[in-house]
Structures are given as C-alpha cells and as structure tokens.
C-alpha cells in the first residue's frame, strides 16, 4: 500500500540542477536490470522510472541518506534503494521518508521483527494461513492468499501471523517484477468467528496498516475478500478509519459469489477451492521457497544492531506505530463493535 499519486521526481539537492549537471552514478555498480522491455515501458509510464536516469536517481537517494541520515543503519546497495524509489515514483524526498519509516517500523515492534526468519515460523507456514499462488494475474501481479480460519489462537499469538505476512512481503519484493507490478491479496474469511476476529483489534490494525501504507516498499493493487461472514462488517469497521481513501477503494467484497471474483481474477489462475481450474491449493512450493531463503533473513533480521539510531529517535513512525500500550478497555470495545454486526 505504498503507491502514491504524486509522480514528481524531486530532491532538495538536485531540483535546481539541470539534467546535465546532476551527479553521475559511480563508474562501477553491481546492479543489472532484470526487467523485460514491456516492464521497462510500464515502469516508465507508471513509476516515472527512466532507464537512462536510474542509477543516477539511486545515487541521489544514496547521497541524501548519507547527508541527512548518517546514523541510519541501512543497505545502500542499488537494488535495495530502487525498491523505495519505485514505491514512491522516484520522488527522492518521499523515497527517503519511506526508507526511514521502514527501519522505524522494524524497531518499533520488536515482537514482530526480532528473529524474523522462516524456520521460526514453520508452524504458521504449515497451517496454511498464507501462501502465494503459483500463477500471477493478467497484469503480472503475484497473489497473496490469506486464510484466517487456519489460525488456531490457542497455538500461537496473532503476531506470528503478522510475522509470516511480513516475511512473505520481504520475499516478494526482492523481485523487480513485483516492484513494478505490485501484488494482489485474496483473503478468504470463511469460518472466521467472533472470538477469532476479536484478536484483530484497533491497536493491531493501526500498526499493520501503518506498515503496509507508509513503512514498506510494495504496491498493493487490490484486496479481494471472499466468503466473508457478517462479522466482517465489524472487522472492516475497525480497519477502514486507518486506510487512505485510495486504498479503501481497492477493497472488493465478493461474499460467496465466485463469479464476481472471477471477473477480477480469472479462473485459470485460481485453485479449485475458489472455482478455478489451476488444481488444488498447494502451500508446499511457497513454504519451500521461504525456507530456502533462511540465510538471507538471518543476515537481515537476526544480527545484533546498534542500540539506537539517532535519526530514528528523531523521526516519527508512521501513524499507528507509536509504542503506546492499548488501554484495558480496547478488547471490550472491539467485541462491542463486532457484536453489533449480528
């Protein structure tokens, strides 16, 4: 949910310079673009990405990090910084803010981000709570499938599900195709009970949405909800106040009407559980892909870091990510809201 309508490429240090005066990228770089010609054209049209300027834009963002956030412990590699430029349509200032938010989010919710690696989430992955479908949609977007009914609250807390979602997003965003195309979410709420829904209260909702909208470099292009019970009205009532209007307009509620779903996601890419022709839903391939990335996540999320980044101490985290403790009445208020849907 990182996409914004603003498409200007701006920088305090570069805005006043002509094209010929902008700093050139380093002579040597390890980045090699993997985009097809069609995706290069799509990135140019939708993200304001110009191949001839790409490495110069990356260098401009790198220089801004070094100058304005010298204590920010972050990768400065071309491929990593490109994620943030693409998510903010090559607006340097907004890309820098997204990068700061990204790290602020990780430090503000340690129970989610500490020791974040696939092997620590084997139980969640084995449950089938989430997977990525093997086929992309007609626009080349991966489909993240969520099935909350597979979660048994007595087995582990809801934060483990959030960890698994974030783990999956981190894996998906490594692909340049995903950086350009974005992703689609398919959420199946079949069998979600009142007691299970009550775990996802305003405190959790604000933090998750704060990350997805303002703290992670991914473009969520649509959220398709199927088999939602009446209780979902209460769930969505909790979520909607924290959603930006553009993102709220990307939610599509289909109920049990699979024909409605198929008008957005064709049958040939869906498993038979959702009226598709792509075979039964299989979680093993995606789980294997995540587990094969164990070393990458250990390097990124399981290394001791500095006790405090001064730049993060000065920056405000995205809305909903402040470290306040929810009040004792929060769960009671959530249940009251959910009961009203019956």
Automatic annotation (TrEMBL):
It comes from the Eukaryota. GO terms for molecular function: phosphatidylinositol bisphosphate binding. Residues 1-26 are annotated as: Disordered. Residues 117-282 form the CRAL-TRIO domain. This is Alpha-tocopherol transfer protein-like isoform X2. InterPro entries: CRAL-TRIO_dom (IPR001251), CRAL-TRIO_dom_sf (IPR036865), CRAL/TRIO_N_dom (IPR011074), CRAL/TRIO_N_dom_sf (IPR036273). Pfam families: CRAL_TRIO (PF00650), CRAL_TRIO_N (PF03765). The lineage of its organism: Eukaryota, Metazoa, Chordata, Craniata, Vertebrata. Residues 11-22 have a biased composition (Low complexity). PROSITE patterns: CRAL_TRIO. One of its GO terms (cellular component) is membrane.
């Amino acid at each position: 949910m990182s996409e914004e309508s603003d498409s200007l490429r701006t920088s305090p240090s570069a805005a006043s310079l002509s094209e010929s005066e902008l700093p050139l990228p380093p002579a040597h770089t390890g980045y090699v673009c993997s985009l097809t010609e069609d995706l290069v054209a799509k990135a140019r049209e939708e993200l304001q990405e110009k191949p001839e300027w790409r490495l110069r834009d990356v260098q401009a963002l790198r220089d801004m990090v070094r100058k304005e956030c010298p204590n920010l412990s972050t990768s400065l590699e071309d491929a990593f910084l490109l994620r943030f430029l693409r998510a903010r349509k090559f607006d340097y200032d907004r890309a820098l803010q997204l990068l700061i938010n990204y790290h602020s989010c990780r430090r503000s919710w340690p129970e989610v981000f500490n020791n974040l690696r696939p092997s620590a989430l084997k139980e969640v992955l084995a449950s089938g709570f989430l997977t990525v479908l093997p086929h992309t949609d007609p626009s080349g977007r991966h489909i993240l499938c969520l099935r909350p009914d597979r979660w048994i609250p007595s087995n582990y807390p809801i934060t483990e599900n959030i960890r698994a979602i974030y783990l999956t997003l981190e894996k998906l965003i490594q692909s340049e195709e995903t950086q350009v195309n974005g992703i689609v979410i398919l959420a199946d709420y079949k069998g979600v009970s009142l007691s299970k829904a009550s775990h996802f209260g305003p405190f959790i909702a604000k933090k998750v949405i704060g990350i997805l909208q303002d703290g992670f470099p991914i473009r969520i292009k649509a959220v398709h909800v199927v088999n939602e019970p009446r209780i979902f009205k209460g769930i969505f009532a909790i979520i909607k106040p924290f959603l930006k209007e553009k993102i709220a307009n990307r939610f599509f509620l289909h109920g049990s009407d699979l024909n409605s779903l198929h008008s957005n996601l064709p049958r040939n890419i869906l498993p038979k559980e959702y009226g598709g022709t792509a075979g039964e839903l299989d979680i093993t391939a995606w789980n294997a892909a995540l587990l094969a990335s164990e070393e990458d996540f250990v390097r990124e999320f399981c290394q001791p870091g500095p006790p405090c980044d001064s730049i993060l101490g000065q920056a405000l985290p995205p809305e909903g990510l402040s470290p306040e403790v929810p009040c004792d009445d929060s769960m009671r208020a959530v249940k009251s809201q959910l009961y009203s849907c019956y």
